[in-house]
Amino acid sequence: MTSIFDQYEQASQVSQRLVPPSEQMTSSGYINIQLDDNKPMFSKRQMNFTPSDLITHVAVSSDYLVLAMANGMIFRLDVKMPDENEEINYSKYVQPNSKLTAIFLDPLGYHLLLAFAARNKDGNPELVYLHRKSNKLKTVAKSRNYEVTEVGWNYENTSTSTTGPILLGTSQGHIIETELETDSDKMFTASQQYWRQIFDIGKGTDTPITGIQFHRVNNTTKFFIFVTTPKRLYQFIGHAMASDEKPFLQSIFHSYLTTVETGFHEIPSTLKYSKLQFFFDKTNSPKTFAWLTEPGIFYGQLDPTSQQNSNSLFTQGELITYSDKSEKNDTKEATPLSFVLTEFHVLLMYSDRVKAVSLLNQKLVYEDRYSEVHGKLKNIVKDPIGKTIWTVTDKAVFRYKVEREERNVWRIYSDKEQFDLAKRYCQNNPAYIDIINVKQAELLFKKGDYDKSAETYAETQSSFETVCLKFLECDQVNSLKVYLSKRLDTLDDDKTLISMIVIWMTELFLSQLGSLRRTGKADSNEYHQIQSNFEIFLLQPKVTKCMQHIKTVIYDLMSSHGDKQNLIKLTIINEDHENVVAQNIYEKSYVQALNMLQHLKKPDLFYQFAPALMEEIPRETVNALISLGPILSSSRLLPAFLSCENDEAHVSEIIRYLTFMLQNYNVKDRAIHNYLLTLYAEHDVPALMRYLSRQGQELSMVNYDVHYALRLCREKNLTEACVKLSALLGLWESAAELALQVDTGLAKTVADMPDDVTLQRRLWLGVAEHVITKNQDIKVAMSLLEECPLIKIEDILPFFSDVITIDHFREPICQSLQEYNNQIEELKAEMEDATKSAEYVRSEIQSFRGRSALVCSSDTCCVCSLALLLRPFYLFPCSHRFHSDCLRTEILPVLAPARRNKLTDLQKQLTLLSNIELSTVTSSGLPLREVLKNEIDDIVASECLYCGEYMITCIDRPFIADEDWDRVMKEWE
User: CB of 276 within 8 A of CB of 210?
Assistant: First the structure.
């Protein structure tokens, strides 16, 4: 048999998908996006199989399908293996007058229970068990007196051989706890462990149980139990006994046995049946429940953990009626025969159709009509494990596929103004999220919650202009700022819109602050709060970055509002202090501008604004300049100083600053020194002299331009300064002449300064001439002779007039003559000593010419220790003897490079020149060969190798050369 899911029902079925109408949503900024899923939410396909008779009952669990048919056969099929199916005759295992009322399959799909009722008074009800791996049915003992109408399976059971503790509901209202297990691995027949009636819903009256479910509460020993009858929904909660004690669940009902009325929820109904369904989440924990009654489906959220003193185990209970609210008529339809529960819908089964109704808005979203060819619908069931939905008719089996049933949930929650839930189920679709946000923002706006509305609008794609106008029309400036701020946070690359928002928000802040200042609320909490928010706004990285491009506009805006404080703060943030300082100067707030410059410590700003500040507040400005010290360049402040030499006050402050810099930081800039010298020359001559003295008399050490200084002092007729400067330049005659105009003592000092004795004598003669010519005072002249030993009496006699007789100079003349006589005697003695020395030298030379040395055949070279007479040799007066080649080899390393190169060149000439060339007579009268040899001898044999300077220069040479060190070390090893 081919796959049972390979065909969709087409011609024999009429199926339609209904799209629930929704109110027109506010359009978003997204364009041409598909909001609805084209795939149908519910689709059906028929099983490819024909039952052997009319189907009466169905059960599905864990992809295992069981059908009961009117001919007494049970059809079993593993959905995953559709070709392997089987039929079992159950009628031969029960009494002939028994009627099958229901079949129940456990969640694992291994344990099947068949409930039978008696057709007449002679029969008894019974319960039959069939294992998945067995073909034989067995009646459950003790069940003959109970007509089982519902089974509460144990969802925690994982064994295929036992059902675990389960609850059975009967037609009399009894709740029975039992556990069934197989007899052996080969005989899969029921063996009843225990059978215990633990509660009676009807209290003695026949109240059939139509639904029963029990589940554990969050891995504790606590369980909750739901039991339904045609009119009531009962709830039980309590702690179960230990797992090895039987009955396991009986203790849950202990607290309800003594109560007059057990906690229940009642809905009037004339039906003899009802249905109970649970929906399980992904962790197989019960999340919601639904109860089919005559008025409608009672639906609620399960919340057993929050149950305290209340008798209710669920929340948000509501009744979903069967009429379609999307239609205008309110006529009630027939009650469904059965239903199944999904997360967001209930599928209602009628005799000829299936309807899907939304749990959220109770609207019909799907309707599927069945053809009469298949007969009437018998049941609709849901696989609790596989989550598949099945319907059966008299002649066919169908399977429903649920495709994204949550697709429209976001819209429903949005309509119900549950926006957080709407966003949770919109699957992060930006178009859906935008629609939800727009609707939420509009609702908040209508309610007057403008700030939250602004925050939500900022997350939408709504028109920027439209949203801004909404808040402006209702004069909600704060909310508009919230919107603009949020929109600014979402922008990344739109520089134009970012700039516009920054400018607009700045204008809003400034307007609010200005309005409060005008009304005298500058010290109010509101003002401080707005100011704090404004400062936070300006410090945002995105705003700071934008300010670099629009700061001129913002500055103008702040200036127009007269908000100088914020302007200053903004310039500090932007590190653009030039505008603030300029504005302070413009407003004549010089001290404030100076304080800012001093605080910022930015040299460029000082250089820019120093002229204006020096002009207005020279003392304060100089104090600031002194406090900054070497941070500022004195030379770059010169333009500021030059522009304000108006009066003594300005000049004195300039001199104070320049003097401070020279004395404390040793400034050597010539321009600074020249300028200070100029100020001294014009305003403070004593300070000029002190300055020149501190600079010294070394021309290379002074920091000012001496020529400029001399020219300036001459223009100012500062003779004493000119004397110092002329002396510094070496203009001694000029300096002496100027000094004589000032003071004779100064002239004497100048005369002693030169190092040249001749120059000193000439200068002193000038002084003497000036003094003697002027006063003709013999005593003064005599004192000059004592002060300067360089001049004699004969030098100054011409300066006296003719009326002065020689008698006045008797003593100086006699003294001078005696000195000359002494000098003559000293010269004679020196001449006699020189004569004796010359004669001694001549005698030594004569004796040296006749000196000889004896060379024996046994003499050896002092270098190579070989016989000396074997090769040409040198013999020194000190008796050291060397072969000529040995001496050249030894002397070569210690020669200067120039002499070494010359020696090499001379040897090459002796080697390369021919005999004819070497025999050529030179200008000296000797052959070229003799000349070359003499030059070689002068280099090599100028002195003894051991007794001359060569030995002294080699004193720092090691005994072992570097290249021989390794070899010598190995020899010593």
Answer: yes
Q: What is the DSSP letter of 807?
A: G
pLDDT digit string, tens, across residues 25-84 = 444 454 444 545 567 888 889 888 888 899 999 999 999 999 999 999 999 999 888 888
Angle at 644 between CA 641 and CA 646, to 5 degrees: 135
Sheet of 14-17, strands arranged across = 14-17, 364-369, 353-358, 345-349, 338-341
CA distance 103 to 89: 14
DSSP 8-state secondary structure symbol assigned to residue 812: H
Q: Any idea what the Cα angle at residue 237 is, between residues 234 and 240, rounded to 5°?
A: 130
Q: Which two tokens stand for residue 442?
A: 């509009």
Distance CA 373, CA 952 (A): 137
Q: Starting at the earlier edge strand, list the strands of the sheet with 314-321.
A: 275-280, 286-292, 296-302, 314-321
The C-alpha angle with vertex 753 and arms to 747 and 759, in degrees rounded to 5, equals 85
Q: Which is nearest to 76 in space by CA: 99, 107, 105, 48? A: 105
Q: Are 497 and 503 in contact (CB under 8 A)?
A: no
Q: From CA 940, how far away is CA 935, in angstroms rounded?
A: 9
For helices 603-616 and 590-600, give the axis angle rounded to 10 degrees: 150
CB 713 within 8 A of CB 722: yes
Cα–Cα separations (whole angstroms), residue 196 to 167, 190, 203: 10, 17, 17
φ and ψ at 933, to 5 degrees?
-65, -40
276: left (phi over 0), alpha (psi -120 to 50) or beta: beta
Which amino acid type is present at position 458? A
CA quadruple 411, 412, 416, 418: dihedral positive or negative? negative
∠ CA 655-658-661 to the nearest 5 degrees? 145
Q: Report the helix count and the strand count for the chain, using DSSP H and E.
A: 33, 31
Beta-bridge partner residues of 162: 181
Of residues 254, 167, 179, 251, the one with CA closest to residue 214 = 167
Burial-class residue 899 by CB neighbours within 10 Å (0-12, 13-18, 19+): middle
- Bridge partners (DSSP) of residue 186 are none
Mean local confidence (pLDDT), 862-875: 88
The SS3 assignment for 167 reads strand
pLDDT band at 813 (very low <50, low <70, confident <90, very high): low
Alpha-helical runs (H) found in 211-359: 254-257
Residue owning tokens 């002294």: 952
SS3 state of residue 58? strand
**What residue ranges in 147-274 does DSSP mark as E strands?**
148-152, 166-170, 174-182, 190-200, 211-216, 222-228, 232-239, 264-266
CA dihedral sign of residues 400, 405, 407, 409: positive
String of DSSP letters for 679-696: HHHHH-HHHHHHHHHHH-
Residue with tokens 């949203």: 467
Sheet with 264-266, edge to edge strand ranges: 211-216, 222-228, 232-239, 264-266
What is the pairing mode between strands 166-170 and 111-118?
A: unpaired
Q: Up-side HSE of residue 323: CA atoms within 13 Å toward CB?
A: 8
Q: What is the DSSP letter of 591?
A: H
**145: Cβ contacts below 8 Å, ≥ 6 apart:** 124, 125
Question: From the centroid of its chain, how far is CA 747?
Answer: 77
Do the Cβ atoms of 563 and 519 come closer than 8 Å? no
Q: 376 and 394 in contact (C-beta within 8 Å)?
A: yes
**Backbone phi, psi, residue 853, to 5°:** -135, 145
Packing angle, helices 732-742 and 719-729, rounded to 10: 160
Residue 61, strand partner residues:
64
> Does the pLDDT value for residue 327 go beyond 50?
no
The predicted-structure confidence for 892-944, as pLDDT tens digits, reads as follows 888 888 888 888 888 888 888 878 777 887 777 788 888 888 888 888 888 88
